[in-house]
Amino acid sequence: MAKQLERGRQWYAIHTYSGYEENVTENLKQRIESYDMHDKIFDVLIPTEKKIKIKNG
Fold first, then answer.
1. With DSSP H G I counted as helix, E B as strand and the rest as coil, what are the percentages for the chain, rounded to 5?
2. For residue 55, is it within any domain?
3. What pLDDT, in 10s, does the model give residues 36-56?
């Protein structure tokens, strides 16, 4: 899934299993570094949400 942004940039969503988001992010950042792709991949974001758990309520 891609969306055109200013200056021809695009964004992509990567599906991963729950609990593996940090691992996927670190792996992707390492690949960006090792393949010198800083000019093609600018940022890696993990969307998060806060969950409130009520115990004995």
1. 30, 10, 60
2. no
3. 998 888 899 988 888 888 888
Average pLDDT of span 15-39: 93
Q: Is the separation of the CB atoms in 13 and 4 below 8 Å?
A: no
Q: Which of 48, 39, 51, 45 is nearest to 14 (CA)?
A: 45
* Residues forming a β-bridge with 2: 12
Overall domain count for the chain: 1
Is the CB of residue 49 less than 8 Å from the CB of residue 21?
Answer: no
Question: Which residue type is seen at 11?
Answer: W
d(CA 25, CA 33) in angstroms, rounded, equals 12
16 domain-assigned? yes
